[in-house]
Design goal:
Oligomer: single chain
CATH superfamily of the largest domain: Intergrase catalytic core
CATH topology of the largest domain: hpI Integrase, Chain A
Number of strands: 3
Mean pLDDT: 86
CATH architecture of the largest domain: Orthogonal Bundle
Number of helices: 13
Largest sheet: 3 strands, antiparallel
């Protein structure tokens, strides 16, 4: 089964072009499934749908609904792979039901809260210039945190005012960044980054104290600190800034399709959740301000 697993992971990376995080998650899910098979001395080439359902039932008692859905997706993808390779005639998982997930509305900051957050870094210090550039760029573009910390200096075009990034599935997209973000990045590049590089030659745009590329965990700590300094009581994460970017654009009249492109969503239904956020805000405003709520 190890050989099958290796072939499947290679298929996900090369033919499907899935992101590394997705590949790693599917790999863990498949390992869990293979352990189930080994304990029962079953082969994935001869397993029945009932046995797969048994495995999913066991997962449902131990994991969250979201994790169970991902496990089912991994199993279905695995058996489709076996069919495509001619190892089995049909997938025993093709009729496996996937539970519907409750889609939580994303946490969103108000525009005033975003302004307070962006004012926290001290631009007189190299680390402040870096933090300000990261926060401004994140809010201006709606990048995922992995995309933000993965940016290289070559990905920024300050003359044209856009950032080029590789999203999920290694899909490239170009997003405009706006004047405020451009100014912050220019200041960081002309002063702070050189001081933080400490003689290193890192290609990454945002550096840590050792002159190496910023990590996702490192930026999480930075944004948490500045959120606390800004006295924002809401839980702030890099993703909540991304949510705020999308929500504020839609509130200002941006069309859903354009926001989808900027966020790098493959399916517009993923972007549509932000319209729910906007409607919720309108409802709250109406109840708070209308004389007869």
């Amino acid at each position: 089964m190890d050989n099958l697993a290796d072939q499947f992971i290679n298929y996900l990376r090369v033919e499907r072009g899935l992101a590394d995080n997705t590949v790693q998650a599917y790999s863990r899910d498949l390992t869990r499934f293979f352990l189930f098979l080994e304990e029962r001395k079953l082969s994935p080439l001869e397993i029945s749908r009932d046995r797969i359902t048994e495995h999913v039932g066991m997962l449902a008692r131990r994991l969250s609904s979201k994790s169970v859905v991902r496990n089912i997706s991994a199993i279905k993808t695995f058996f489709r792979f076996l069919v495509s390779e001619g190892m089995i005639k049909s997938s025993p998982a093709r009729l496996l039901e996937t539970p519907r997930l409750y889609r939580r509305l994303p946490g969103v900051l108000s525009q005033a809260e975003v302004e307070r957050l962006l004012c926290q870094p001290d631009p007189s210090k190299p680390v402040g210039q870096r933090d300000r550039a990261m926060l401004e760029l994140l809010y201006a573009t709606g990048l995922r945190v992995s995309e933000l910390v993965g940016l290289k200096t070559s990905n920024i075009n300050l003359e044209a005012g856009y950032v080029r990034t590789l999203g999920k599935g290694s899909k490239e997209r170009i997003v405009p960044m706006g004047e405020k973000a451009m100014e912050a990045v220019k200041e960081y590049l002309s002063d702070g980054r050189h001081k933080m590089a400490k003689g290193t030659n890192s290609p990454y745009l945002f550096l840590n104290f050792r002159g190496r590329g910023m990590t996702r965990q490192g930026f999480w700590k930075i944004i948490k600190k500045h959120g606390s300094d800004a006295l924002i009581k809401k839980k702030i994460t890099p993703h909540s800034i991304r949510h705020s970017f999308a929500s504020h654009l839609l509130e200002a009249g941006a069309d859903l399709r354009s926001v989808q492109v900027m966020l790098g969503h493959a399916d517009i239904s993923t972007t549509q959740i932000y319209t729910h956020v906007t409607r919720e805000r309108l409802k709250e405003l109406h109840e708070r301000c209308h004389p007869r709520p």
